[in-house]
C-alpha cells in the first residue's frame, strides 16, 4: 500500500524549498522503498531552486545525496532485502548501455532522465503525488530530502550494516565527485602542485583526493576566510582568496610554469572562472571543470594560443568519473582505514523543515557540507 511521507519540494523556479506531505507509491519491479537516514545538501539542488538547472516538472522534490534502510522491495527484484543499508548514487548505472560497457558508468544512458522527475523507462510515470493526484518530480529519480523514497535499484548501492549511515550518505555525490575530480579527471601525481578553486562540499574532497594522490602542494582558493581552517583539515597546504594569488604562488614554485592541475569546484560556475583556471596551469597541465552554474550558458574567455601551443587540457568531470558500484564501497573502506575524512565534512546538521535555511547558510559560506539528519 502507498504510504504518506514528508518531503521538501520547490513549487517553481526561482523558488524556495518547503516541506509538504505526499503519497509515495510502493516499489515496482527493480525498485525499493528506503527510509532515509541522512541527506547531504548539495549545491546542485540549490541550482534547481534558482533555475540554473531547469527541471521538467513542478513540484519537484529535492535531494540526491543520501543513505538509508530498505523498508520494501518490489516484486521480482532479486539481490535486495528489507533491512539492507544503502547509499544512493545520484547517477544510476544500468550496466548494459554502451557507456557502462566502456567503463564509464557515470555517463550511463539512464542519466538522460535525471531532471525529468519521472522513471527513466517512462517519462509519464511518477512515484510521488500530492493529495489531488498532482505528480511530484524526484530529483535524479531518488529525492533524498524525504523521510521515505522509492527509487530504482540502478540508483542504490548496498553497504555494510556496521558503517554509520550519516557518514555514508556523503558518498552519494560530494566525496566521489571531488575526490575523483583530482585523482581521475585531474590525474594528479606524486609531487604535483594542485589548485582547487572553491572550497565547499566538492572542493574539500578535491583537496582530499589531491593529497591522497601525493601532491606536495595543494592550494585552496576561496574568498571566505573561515574556510582556511577547514581546507587545512582536508589536505590544503596553502590558502588564497583569489585565483590570481594562487597562480602566482604556484608559478613561484615551478620555475614560472604554474600548477600541474587546477580543479574548478566553484558553486556557481561562470566562463571567467575557466579562463582564470587555464591561465594558472603549466604547459601540458590540466583544468578540471566540476562546478555548475547556468547549464544553458555558453562561452569562456580562454587564451586560444595557450590552449594549442602550450598543449593545455580542459576536462569536464561528472561525478569525478566515478563508477558508483566500485567506488562507493572502495571509498568507504578508505574511511574505515582512516584514509578518508567523512565526519569532518559535515559542518551543520538540519531538520527536514530547515532546507531553505541550510541553503541560506551555504550561500553565506557557513558550511562545507550541511546535512539533513532524520530521527
Question: Any idea how many domains?
Answer: 2
Task: Return the CATH architecture of the largest domain.
Answer: Alpha-Beta Complex
| Subunit organisation of the chains | single chain
- Beta strand %: 25-35%
> The biggest beta sheet, please?
7 strands, mixed
If helices are DSSP runs of H or I spanning 4 or more residues, what is the number of helices? 11
Strand segment count: 18
CA(first)-CA(last) distance: 23 Å
By CATH, the topology of the largest domain is Quinone Oxidoreductase, Chain A, domain 1
Coarse morphology: globular
Radius of gyration using CA atoms only: 20 Å
Overall description:
- The chain is an alpha/beta fold and 375 residues long.
- It has two domains: 3-172 and 341-373, Quinone Oxidoreductase, Chain A, domain 1 (Alpha-Beta Complex), CATH 3.90.180; 177-319, Rossmann fold, CATH 3.40.50.720.
- 26% of the residues lie in helices and 26% in strands.
- The strands form three sheets. Strands 3, 5, 6, 9, 10, 17 and 18 form a seven-stranded mixed β-sheet that branches. It has a six-stranded parallel β-sheet with strand order 13-12-11-14-15-16, with helices on both faces.
- β7 and β8 (135-138) form a beta hairpin.
- α4 crosses α5 (201-213) and α7 (243-253) runs parallel beside α8.
- The chain is globular and about 65 Å long.
- The two termini are 23 Å apart.
Amino acid at each position: 500500500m502507498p504510504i504518506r511521507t514528508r518531503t521538501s519540494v520547490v513549487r517553481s523556479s526561482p523558488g524556495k524549498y518547503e516541506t509538504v506531505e505526499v503519497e509515495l507509491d510502493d516499489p515496482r519491479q527493480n525498485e525499493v522503498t528506503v527510509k532515509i537516514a541522512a541527506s547531504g545538501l548539495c549545491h546542485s539542488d540549490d541550482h534547481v531552486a534558482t533555475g540554473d538547472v531547469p527541471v521538467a516538472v513542478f513540484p519537484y522534490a529535492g535531494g540526491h545525496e543520501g543513505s538509508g534502510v530498505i523498508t520494501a522491495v518490489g516484486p521480482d527484484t532479486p539481490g535486495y532485502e528489507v533491512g539492507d543499508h544503502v547509499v544512493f548514487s545520484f547517477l544510476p548505472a544500468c550496466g548494459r548501455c554502451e557507456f557502462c560497457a566502456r567503463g564509464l558508468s557515470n555517463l550511463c544512458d539512464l542519466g538522460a532522465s535525471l531532471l525529468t522527475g519521472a522513471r527513466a523507462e517512462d517519462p509519464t510515470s511518477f512515484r510521488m503525488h500530492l493529495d489531488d493526484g498532482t505528480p511530484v518530480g524526484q530529483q535524479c529519480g531518488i529525492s533524498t530530502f524525504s523521510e521515505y523514497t522509492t527509487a530504482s535499484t540502478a540508483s542504490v548501492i548496498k553497504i555494510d550494516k556496521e558503517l554509520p549511515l550519516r557518514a555514508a550518505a556523503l558518498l552519494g555525490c560530494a566525496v566521489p565527485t571531488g575526490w575523483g575530480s583530482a585523482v581521475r579527471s585531474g590525474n594528479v601525481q606524486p609531487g604535483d602542485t594542485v589548485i582547487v578553486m572553491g572550497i565547499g562540499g566538492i572542493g574539500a574532497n578535491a583537496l582530499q583526493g589531491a593529497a591522497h594522490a601525493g601532491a606536495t602542494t595543494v592550494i585552496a582558493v576561496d574568498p571566505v576566510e573561515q574556510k582556511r581552517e577547514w581546507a587545512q583539515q582536508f589536505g590544503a597546504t596553502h590558502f588564497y582568496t583569489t585565483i590570481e594569488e594562487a597562480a602566482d604562488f604556484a608559478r613561484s614554485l615551478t620555475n614560472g610554469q604554474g600548477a600541474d592541475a587546477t580543479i574548478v569546484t566553484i558553486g556557481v560556475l561562470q566562463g571567467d572562472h575557466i579562463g582564470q583556471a587555464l591561465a594558472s596551469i603549466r604547459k601540458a597541465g590540466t583544468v578540471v571543470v566540476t562546478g555548475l552554474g547556468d547549464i544553458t550558458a555558453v562561452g569562456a574567455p580562454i587564451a586560444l594560443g595557450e590552449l594549442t601551443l602550450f598543449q593545455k587540457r580542459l576536462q569536464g568531470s561528472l561525478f569525478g568519473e566515478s563508477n558508483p558500484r566500485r567506488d562507493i564501497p572502495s571509498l568507504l573502506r578508505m574511511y574505515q582505514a582512516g584514509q578518508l575524512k567523512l565526519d569532518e565534512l559535515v559542518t551543520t546538521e538540519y531538520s527536514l523543515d530547515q532546507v531553505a535555511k541550510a541553503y541560506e547558510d551555504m550561500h553565506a559560506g557557513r558550511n562545507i557540507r550541511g546535512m539533513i539528519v532524520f530521527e
